[in-house]
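User: I'm putting together notes for a lab meeting next week and I want to include a structural view of one of the chains we've been expressing. I don't have a solved structure, so I'd like a prediction I can at least talk through. The sequence is below, exactly as it appears in our construct file.
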Amino acid sequence: MAAVIKKVVMFYVDGFRSMTVGRKLWIIILVKLFVMFAVLKLFFFKDFLGERFKNNSQQKSNYVLEQITK
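Assistant: Thanks for the context. Below is the predicted structure for the 70-residue chain, given as structure tokens.
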């Protein structure tokens, strides 16, 4: 079982090592994911529950449950 896993891992490592165009595409994909998840979260998605309820997880969970079951 360990030999099969090692062969699969080495297959992918060798494939990524020999890439030329694919490497640039992966860099573009990673930069795009960073922008989507890090930058957009900072500017557009505020901590809504943190602003409404100060440190009470019971109130937060009740509010979310109430909003979901409406």
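A couple of points you could mention at the meeting. The two ends are 50 Å apart (CA to CA). The chain has a mean pLDDT of 86.

User: Perfect, that's what I needed.
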